[in-house]
User: What shape does this take?
Amino acid sequence: MIKDSVSKDKSELMVFKDDLGQNVYRKKSYYIVKIEQDVMADNIDEANNKFIEKGGINHSNITKDITDENDGVTTHYVEADYGTCITEYHGKVTYTDDEYAEENGDVEINTDVEEDSPFKDYKENVLKEESDIDIALNLEAESQVGK
Assistant: This one.
């Protein structure tokens, strides 16, 4: 009985009579592919779930098409294994530092805001800090003018 399937060890090199005596070598290369993806979520658990369900590698695209095959080199096998994954807080979406930002809806990812800081508290604290700074600058300017 003849099997239609090709064993994992059989090469896909096309060989001809002129190739008699040539050695055939198989090289296994392990590549580390780094993928960084961002996601918006309320907390790290929700973020991890979104990464698992909606992110990562599209394994159907990991085919022989990602390899180079020239001058007698053919691809025997391609796979992508899942390795280490680290989820880290990157920032919070906030209004930009512009007096009309809220009115215009101008937002940004602010990496200076703590992960657990509610947006309301952040906004109040920033406005208070800015007003304290403005007061200090105004007092300094007034003292300079008075000299």
User: Anything to note?
Assistant: The longest helix spans residues 119-146. Residues 1-7 have pLDDT under 50 and may be disordered.
